[in-house]
Amino acid sequence: MGCGRCLRKCATRVKKIFEKVEYAAVAMCGFGTAMVMIGTAIPRWRLDEHGTKPLENVWSFSGFESKSYGLMTVYAKSARSWDVIVRMTCEWQGLKGAQIGAIIQQGWHGDCDGSQQCGDGFTNHVYTRCIEYDRMQTVSMAVLFLSMLTIILAILGILMACFGSLKRLGGCAYGLLLFAGFISILSNVIWAVVTWVAFSNLGEDAWYPYPSLAIGWFLHLYGGITLLVSSAVFGWLVMPLVRAFDAEKSKLQKRKNKLMMMSWWNRDQERDQFAMHQHMPTSCPQNPPYAAYPADQGNFQAAGGLAYGADQGNPAYQANLYGAPYQASHAQPLPEMAAPARYV
Asked: Does residue 36 contact residue 227 with C-beta atoms inside 8 Å?
């Protein structure tokens, strides 16, 4: 029974999507939220399609064909999180090891000059990588948090719009959906700008291919724009209803409707009772007829004035009880009583 009611309620809500533009806008907000979720999960926000192939033509080593950057992981030959990449670049075997190697090289070759011949150039580049990787990790974690917040706020707004009264909760749903779309687009653009600056700085110190924006970033941006525009349309349709809504009038109207329903219910009850009385029989059923008894078969004989119980032991009286022919009674008649004197 409970599952049937839930299915009927869901079917009613789905039917409303095709009947009212407000619910169609809410459905588009749900579609935009789904795009934001998919874009957040895809580890391709920037893609380097060249990899190390140009360097493999000059030096003999095994590199990678492409490299993709996401919010949580970076994938070349294998997937690694941003935290692992930052620690590997900035810890001792990365930055400090390069600094120690540069100092040793300067001690052995004192006449070294130029960043291409000495270790100073590589040391500076590793230091720049450490700074920029840490910056990209920070902005990626911030965008990931804002994306999760966007999804939560959008789901809350959609639930309010679908299962609540648009006059009461339409304003709250509109605010949640609009704010979710705004922070989604803002975080997306900030990530693109910060990573563009970071990869530009990396390309100034050494050969570092610039990765372009990829499918994950575009899906996230598309979802945010869809969510923002659909929420704006929803608010444009719903806010006049919210402004015209009066809570006191609504309570009074609900009370009137309740009283009206109670009066209808009482009227139906009275109608049912009246119909029940109309169909009832007019007289009670008669008892089955018994054999007729003589008039003197009672405990006393009014006409003859027999004493009470005088014929109880008489065989003729007992026979009369069981339908025998009537026989005269042998009981002594009572003396006649004088009429009572009239009060003066």
From this structure: yes
